[in-house]
Structures are given as structure tokens and as C-alpha cells.
Amino acid sequence: MRVVAAFWVLNYVNAMTRRSIILHPDPRLKKTCPPVETVDDDIRALADDMLETMYEAPGVGLAAPQVGVLKRVFVMDCNREDAGKEPTVCINPEIISASEVMVTSEEGCLSIPDIYDDVTRPETVRLRFLDRNGKVEERDLDGLWSTCAQHELDHLNGKLFIDYLGAVRRTMITNRMKKVKKEKARA
Length: 187
Ligand code: NI
Description:
By secondary structure, the protein is an alpha+beta fold. The protein has helices spanning about 1-15, 40-55, 145-155, 165-185; strands at about 60-65, 75, 90-100, 100-110, 110-120, 125-130, 135-140. It is built from four helices and seven strands, in the order H-H-E-E-E-E-E-E-E-H-H.
């Protein structure tokens, strides 16, 4: 009984695991991810790990390929600190409509740390996705939520925010990241 209980506690503690975030450049960040067929416990565990990883980073969004899992899953929470947490799991997300009005905002990415640049995207989008329980949801997003959802959805199609930048700037960022990765590997 005690052994079982201890094992259960151990399992519970392990329930959420921080995963390591893949840094650009990496071929896994360039892949189009296939959809999730069934929202099961494995997918829920992945989503929970991703939320834990995202909050720890800290970041406002994280896509499955960034932790090496090529599946159409991303997590986000763009609430201001004073608004409380709103962990959001989006499985097989699609943008079903987008505003014609565009907005330019500064973006960053956990796979390209310490680099920020302006990206222009539709100001608002309507996002359809399956939630953590496999239920279809639709949400109208604006502000940071809209930008973040579009950025994360791009990840599922192998696209990074630096792909919106000019070739010179993108190459400069990629070269800088190659150096960062080399230094990390040596450390
Ligand atoms: Ni990103």
C-alpha cells in the first residue's frame, strides 16, 4: 500500500515535466506538422508539459515542434499578470476568418531567444480548435492573443516569425543563433 502510494505520488510529481526548447536553426522547426487524430491522455500530457515549459521560460506561447513533437498542438496564455492565468490548449487549430485590418507588433520566439522584430499580421482572427478535452471551440482573438495564435499556428506549418523579415536580417539572425547554439553545446 505504501509502495503504491509512493509510486502514485512520484507519478503525480512527474505529471508535468519541463521539456527542452529546440533552438533555431533546426530541421524540426521547418516541418509541416500532421493533425492530431485523437485527443487522448498522451496529447493532454504533452499539452500540460508544454504549458509548464512555456510558463517557466517564460513565454506567452509555445508550439509542439518547439519541443520536438511534430503534431498540430500549441499552448498560449497572453493574459496580463494581474488578470490571472488562462492556460489555453489549441489542438488542430485553424484560422477561419481574419480581419482585413493589419497591425504591426514586435514579436519574439522561445526558439530564437533575445531577438525581437516587427511583424505585420491581421489585427483580429477567429480561431477554431479542439481544446484539451477534444471539444471544438471557436474564439475571436485580438491584441496579443491574436498575434500569438498566428505566430504559434505558423510554427505548425514550419514557419518562423523571422521568415517575415528581409533576407539580410534573417540571415544575420540565423548566423547569430548558430553561434549561440555552438557556445551552448560547448558549455
Ligand atoms: Ni515562436
